[in-house]
Amino acid sequence: MRYVKWTILFVLALFVFSFLHYSMPQRDIVRIVNTYEERQDLNDWTRMFWSVPDDQSGSLSNRDVQFIQAVKANGKTMVYRNEDTGWGWPPYFKFDTANLYTEANDAKSTKDAPEWYAIKHYGWRNEFLSIFPNAVGLRPVDGPDARLIPWGNIIILIGFALFFLFLSRLWAQFRERTIDPLLEDAEETWDAVDERADRAKGRFRGWLDSWKGKPRK
């Protein structure tokens, strides 16, 4: 039973970590090399990784999506999609896809004369599933070694920690006031039933002994 409990807790923790890692903002320092627009097929397996900025887009099997191609300082390439999030999840309330596309076009640079930008995004990049992180912001930085402090993530994580601490305190009070008394009552009831069963068993044995000619105890 202990292994089942820890397995459930591990799976739950993994789910929460994956959910936060996908939804929370991340920032990469990159050199933007190109932007393009391409029609994407949205299948049932990967639809959850694409935005649904309006009611109509949720029912489409394919649609045109804007992309931003970039290169990191270590030479690793990265491709971001550029989609509005609308009022959906994650709550970035992004409605300026066209503006960001224009900014990205204006920020292109070459390897010989690089210009570095911090691109804010959420989501994952997976070549096998053909999913891309969604870019939500862009700003210039001094260089590839610019220090970026994730204040937003720090505030969000502190908020989550306080929320779970509040829930744990509520659960502890609920258990102390409701569950523990019920368990104690159930234990006392069980002990009473067990005691009555022992007495009935003793009387039954005494009755059997009387039939064998033995004095009843």
Plain-language structure description:
The structure is a single chain. This protein has helices at residues 2-23, 97-106, 151-211, and strands at residues 26-41, 62-72, 77-82, 117-122, 134-140. With 217 residues, the chain is of the alpha+beta class. The protein has 2 domains: 2-148, Nucleic acid-binding proteins (OB fold (Dihydrolipoamide Acetyltransferase, E2P), Beta Barrel), CATH 2.40.50; 151-217. It is elongated. The two termini are 44 Å apart. The chain crosses the membrane at residues 148-167. Keywords: Membrane, Transmembrane, Transmembrane helix. InterPro entries: Phage_phiNM3_A0EWY4. It comes from Actibacterium lipolyticum.
How would the blueprint of this fold be written?
Layout (H helix, E strand, L loop, with lengths): L1 H22 L2 E16 L20 E11 L4 E6 L14 H10 L10 E6 L11 E7 L10 H61 L6
What attributes does this structure have?
OB fold (Dihydrolipoamide Acetyltransferase, E2P), 2 domains, 217 residues, 43% helix, alpha+beta, 5-stranded antiparallel sheet, elongated, 3 helices, single chain, 5 strands
- Please state roughly what percent of the residues sit in beta strands, choosing from under 5%, 5-15%, 15-25%, 25-35%, 35-45% or over 45%: 15-25%
| Molecular shape | elongated
Number of separate strands = 5
State the end-to-end distance: 44 Å
For the record, the CATH architecture of the largest domain stands as Beta Barrel
Instruction: Tell me the major beta sheet.
Output: 5 strands, antiparallel
CATH classification class of the largest domain:
Mainly Beta
Total helix count?
3
Low-confidence stretches: none
Q: Which structural class matches the secondary elements?
A: alpha+beta
InterPro entries: Phage_phiNM3_A0EWY4
Protein name: DUF1523 domain-containing protein
Keywords: Membrane, Transmembrane, Transmembrane helix
Organism: Actibacterium lipolyticum
